[in-house]
Design a protein that fits this description.
CATH topology: Rossmann fold
Largest sheet: 7 strands, mixed
Shape: globular
Structural class: alpha/beta
Oligomer: single chain
Helix content: 25-40%
CATH superfamily: Vaccinia Virus protein VP39
Radius of gyration: 17 Å
Strand content: 15-25%
Strand order of the largest sheet: 3-2-1-4-5-7-6
CATH architecture: 3-Layer(aba) Sandwich
Order of helices and strands: HEHEHEEHEHHEHE
Distance between the termini: 30 Å
């Protein structure tokens, strides 16, 4: 039986409101920058490839991966989140309640295994990564990890709110996430989502993000890490 305590936060209580963030001006821009960064690591032709998504939530990223051509298997520890994802009827996406620390899949069954904004909230990130690696084909498979950057001012501010889900999160710096993933294969780390906090400057985000990535600045709000197995 999957135990809710294996997540640091009960996301079921915010399932109905979770997607509202992406409808805000700020959320829309962060989403755009994050997906742009993740896209840089995805195969150019993913048609028919199998992708396992750990912590799929409401299916927001599942839809993105589906549109890229993947056949998506999404798992989440929250039944309410799974129900929200299923209600979207995303093409080539299947959802089930499961624990990332004990995945109900055989060895090497997926071409890509992804976890976007998930490792921060699990009790045992190391075990989740081990399970992700087990379920991904070798050689040639890929782990794709998106995490909130502990060095970013936005995320530090989020954690100061002791009533928020971020207060319980284990955020990673680019160096820390690389150290976690290095034992599993060749890693490539990118910091992205350099979005100004002032709404009046949001339209400059694409330019600022491009400069931040080119200069390899470590302070973007989002870190994407690829592991080639």
């Amino acid at each position: 039986m999957v135990k809710e305590r294996q997540s640091k936060f009960d996301f079921g209580v915010i399932a109905d409101a979770y997607d509202l963030w992406y409808e805000s001006a700020e959320g829309t821009m962060y989403d755009r920058m994050e997906k742009k960064a993740v896209s840089r690591f995805l195969p150019q032709n993913a048609q028919g490839m199998k992708l396992l998504e750990i912590g799929c939530g409401t299916g927001h990223w599942s839809r993105f991966f589906s549109k890229k051509g993947f056949k998506v298997s999404g798992i989440d520890i929250s039944q309410r989140m799974i129900e929200k994802a299923q209600s979207k009827h995303i093409t080539n996406a299947f959802f089930r309640k499961a624990d990332g620390q004990s995945l109900p899949f055989g060895n090497g069954g997926f071409d890509v295994t992804a976890a976007i904004a998930t490792l921060e909230f699990v009790v045992d990130a190391e075990t989740v990564v081990q399970e992700m690696t087990r379920c991904t084909r070798k050689p040639g498979g890929q782990l794709l990890i998106g995490t909130l950057n502990s060095l970013a001012g936005l995320n530090r501010q989020r954690q100061q709110d002791l009533e928020s889900l971020y207060a319980k999160a284990r955020l990673f710096s680019p160096k820390q996430i690389k150290q976690l993933l290095d034992p599993y294969g060749q890693t490539n780390v990118m910091t992205a989502a350099f979005v100004p906090r002032r709404r009046s400057l949001l339209s400059l985000s694409p330019l600022i993000d491009t400069i931040g990535r080119l200069l390899r600045l470590p302070y973007g709000a989002f870190v994407v890490t690829e592991v080639r197995l």
